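Before relying on records like the one below, remember that each one covers exactly one chain. Contacts with other chains, cofactors or solvent are not represented anywhere in the record.
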Amino acid sequence: MADESDFFARVYDVVARIPPGRVTTYGVIARALDAPRASRGVGWALRAVAATEASPLAVPCHRVVNREGRLTGRRHFATPTAMEERLRAEGVAFVAPDRVDLAAHLWDPGRPRDEAPQRR
């Protein structure tokens, strides 16, 4: 259990750094934590806080999408549309009703700030 709580804390640290108007993926976070096969663990960590009152401020988990840009975590929020509403309010563009434009909005903590986003 101690290892899991440490992993979750590390996930929350990365997610807290995602700038408004940007998104990242479960896999990008896992790679940033040197745990490239832990994408599902990242999802479990975010699910634990998605519907809490503190999460929009402390852990902006609405900014984490799957590798295709789909809002797979939306069912864990207080309402089914909360994730999309928060992203749209931050200016994130969508290419489909449940899919963000990763090419325009992807944030990768391992990439230099001035490097152009790439699809993941």
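The longest strand covers residues 94-96.
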